[in-house]
Specification:
- By secondary structure, the chain is mainly α.
- The N and C termini lie far apart (140 Å).
- The relative contact order is 0.05.
């Protein structure tokens, strides 16, 4: 062997004359690995995207349903509050009419019936004024009315 052949074989040159071919490579070249990975990704892309789109769609649908339920619950609560306020207003209005009506009537007004006939006018007015003060004190000032009722003749000390 010549010196060139010895150097070629020492470097592992497979094309050098007088050398034997190296054993078959067990590892693939990196280009082949990239081609293999690209092929796998190409074949799995559509199924993976389908699964991802399904998951996102289910999440979005559930989120929208939760929002709709929350809005419906809030609307029901608001409706219930409105109904309650309306019924309370109607009750207060009827009660106010019943309490103020006799206070505004003159003595020659409508005839008294039931328990109203049993009480003298001053005591009846004191009772009605007290009921007004207890039920409507936050709506308007009742001080002048209570002072008027206190000055009526025939008031007992308990009524004052």
């Amino acid at each position: 062997m010549t010196d060139q052949e010895k150097q070629s074989s020492a470097r592992g040159d497979p094309d050098a004359p007088g050398t034997t071919a190296p054993p078959a490579r067990k590892h693939r070249d990196w280009r082949e690995n990239v081609k293999f990975a690209t092929g796998v990704i190409n074949s799995l892309a559509i199924p993976l995207l389908t699964v991802a789109a399904t998951v996102v769609g289910i999440y979005a649908t559930n989120t929208l349903k939760e929002r709709e339920i929350a809005i419906a619950t809030e609307n029901n609560a608001q409706s219930l509050r409105n109904q309650r306020e309306e019924s309370e207003t109607n009750l207060r209005s009827a009660m106010f009419r019943e309490l103020v009506g006799p206070l505004l009537q003159s003595e020659a007004g409508a005839p008294l019936t039931g328990d109203q006939a049993d009480l003298p006018r001053a005591q009846r007015l004191a009772l009605l004024a007290e009921l007004l003060a207890l039920n409507f004190h936050e709506h308007f000032e009742l001080g002048p009315l209570l002072r008027y009722v206190d000055t009526l003749p025939g008031q007992t000390e308990d009524a004052r």
